[in-house]
Design a protein that fits this description.
Length: 337
């Protein structure tokens, strides 16, 4: 729960948050209205993919304004921001519209734009601007209502989000270990340009309604998340690799079997995945994970990151390769200049 600070609220604040990638994937909601996941997930927060967001509550505004990378937003993006601002206004008693400015420190057009970093940063900036106390579980719960993966970006390093129960009012992610616990690297192979296909909420609903594998997926996920948490705590790369890769492929198999089918892979996705499997057969410590899009994220240890990046760069159809270490949780920062 947030507490109201006694002093007058600053009315403006800026926060930075980083994207995360799930090693135990979340796919499917147990309660669509409350945005509660049907399965537990576990993720790593990435240093290189940041979103910086400033919020200013202003008496002179007659509606909320949302500017993303210098472009004023309308429609669904604005609505999602307003929904979070409404919750913060209700909790704080502040009755003012806000201007929200947000900037991604990575190419938005690359299809890596992340609702996780976006809503974790917005939650932190709006809560602080409204004079509510800094409380990570409450921030995580607020972020989760907009995007379940955003709940995990409140924390750095390794975090998990438990499954929800229908009707549950509060659900926050929990930290497992900080980034210094285990120095992992992520090599991101961008395999396609342009906007991504079907969004995660719509994709999850189709999967839940039509995939013959959905129930099996929901039953399998808790043990996968538990095994991954154990592997993280023990720094067991092999264990992590095995279950994380299986989680990603099981999620996609489940989604692919939906009607209509959800096929996020592009030809270069398959080629990059096969390149990762080839490196595994050579004994390199690496595994692949894939979200609701065509890009491959290869997770490895620092000494192997350059070799793996080089190998993925040579895959036909991979047009850019990025690297990231693990990053911190959400933080307040200087205003966007
Ligand atoms: O919370 P959303 O709507 O961003 O959905 C996240 C879905 C995946 O990225 C595919 C998996 C995950 O756990 O992050």
């Amino acid at each position: 729960m947030f507490t109201r600070e006694l002093t007058s609220p600053p009315l403006e604040a800026c926060a930075v948050a980083r994207a995360n990638i799930a090693l135990a994937k979340y796919w499917g909601k147990v309660d669509l209205e409350r945005n509660l996941p049907a399965v537990p997930s576990l993720s790593i927060t990435l240093d290189a993919l940041t979103t910086k967001t400033s919020v200013r509550f202003d008496r002179s505004l007659d509606s909320d304004v949302f500017v993303l990378d210098d472009a004023a937003q309308t429609g669904r993006p604005l609505l999602r921001v307003q929904t979070m601002l409404d919750q913060v206004r209700q909790l704080s008693g502040i009755d003012l519209y806000a201007e929200v400015r947000s900037a991604n420190a990575f190419p938005t057009a690359a299809g890596l734009a992340s609702s996780a970093s976006a809503f974790a940063a917005l939650a932190a900036a709006s809560v602080h601007a409204a004079g509510l106390g800094w409380n990570l579980p409450a921030l995580s719960d607020l972020a989760r209502r907009a995007s379940a993966s955003a709940a995990r970006s409140v924390y750095g390093g390794f975090a998990k989000l438990p499954a929800g129960l229908p009707g549950q009012e509060v659900l926050s992610a929990q930290p497992i270990a900080g980034k210094e616990h285990w120095d992992l690297r992520v090599v991101i192979a961008l395999t396609a340009k342009g906007p991504k296909g079907i969004g995660s909420t719509a994709g999850m609903e189709v999967t839940k309604a039509t995939s013959p594998f959905y129930d099996a997926w929901v039953r399998w996920c808790p043990q996968a998340a538990e095994r991954l948490e154990q592997a993280v705590l023990e720094r067991d790369f092999e264990g992590l690799a095995h279950v994380a890769q299986q989680s990603a492929l099981a999620m996609h198999a489940c989604a692919m079997a939906s009607s209509p089918s959800l096929l996020y892979f592009q030809p270069p996705t398959i080629r990059a995945l096969q390149a990762v499997q080839h490196m595994q057969s050579e004994g390199l410590p690496v595994f692949a994970t894939i979200d609701a899009g065509p890009h491959i994220k290869a997770v490895t240890l620092p000494a192997y990151a350059d070799v793996i990046a080089e190998r993925l760069r040579s895959v036909e159809g991979v047009h850019e390769v990025m690297q990231s270490a693990l990053g911190s949780g959400v933080e307040l920062c200087e205003a966007i200049g």
